[in-house]
From TrEMBL:
InterPro entries per UniProt: DUF1995 (IPR018962)
Protein's UniProt name: DUF1995 domain-containing protein
Organism domain of life: Eukaryota
GO cellular component: chloroplast
Pfam families: DUF1995 (PF09353)
Organism of origin: Coffea canephora (Robusta coffee)
Origin organism lineage: Eukaryota, Viridiplantae, Streptophyta, Embryophyta, Tracheophyta
Domain DUF1995 as annotated: residue spans: 7-172
Signal peptide: none
Transmembrane feature ranges: none
Length: 203
């Protein structure tokens, strides 16, 4: 999605989780690109810098923050309000968010626009690889669902869909049920049941 406006360039402030990552970013990335001005900062020293760094920011991006940095994230987000904030690749699992106390509501206030998480469930005789996937086109929310894909014959196929973000337990249940249906043991049991039904004349 292009970021562009007339007159002045859009300033994106990227927050790295530590000073070394910020310094590496300054060496690698070109800070100026046409209509966009990119500035790198780190969460540990943002308030040691000039306050105009935040006040002149149009969009803030937090890259791979740790759960221990949530309080700082919230403070920065509050100071930037109502400017947009992007949280990219956070360093905690979805199941942990309910354990963040007062910060749980802050984390829950973010809308997920893209998520891709690989899965693998092992059964007695087989294993299944899958993916939980959600994507919002062009950043505009329109009721996108969380889809669960499972690999079958080398292709990823949708086996279930959720309105809200599914828990790991819900996804595991879907995969285990799918494995049970396709299990050789289950198929053998069905075959024997059908065979006995034909032999006795019962259904």
């Amino acid at each position: 999605m292009p970021i562009k406006r007339k007159g002045t360039r859009v300033k994106i402030l990227i927050f790295w989780s530590n000073q070394s990552l910020k310094e590496a970013a300054n060496e690698v990335f070109d800070s100026q690109n046409g209509y966009i001005l990119v500035e790198n900062s780190d969460l540990s020293s943002v308030y040691n810098e000039e306050t105009r760094t935040l006040s002149s920011t149009d969009v803030a991006v937090f890259l791979a923050p740790d759960a221990s940095q949530l309080a700082v994230l919230k403070t920065i987000t509050d100071d930037l309000y109502p400017k947009p904030v992007v949280l990219f690749n956070p360093g905690w699992a979805f199941e942990e968010e309910s354990d963040f106390g007062e910060l749980s509501s802050f984390v829950g206030s973010f809308e997920v626009v893209y998520s891709f998480m690989g899965l693998e469930v092992r059964g007695i005789l087989s294993k299944r690889k899958g993916v939980i996937f959600k994507r919002v086109r062009d950043g505009v929310l329109s009721g996108e669902r969380w889809n669960v894909f499972v690999e079958e014959n080398g292709e990823m196929k949708v086996v279930s869909s959720f309105k809200a973000r599914p828990s790991i337990t819900e996804v595991e249940t879907v995969l285990y049920n799918l494995m049970a249906i396709n299990s050789p043991i289950t198929k053998s049991a069905k075959f024997l049941k059908n065979l006995m039904s034909h032999a006795t004349g019962k259904k």
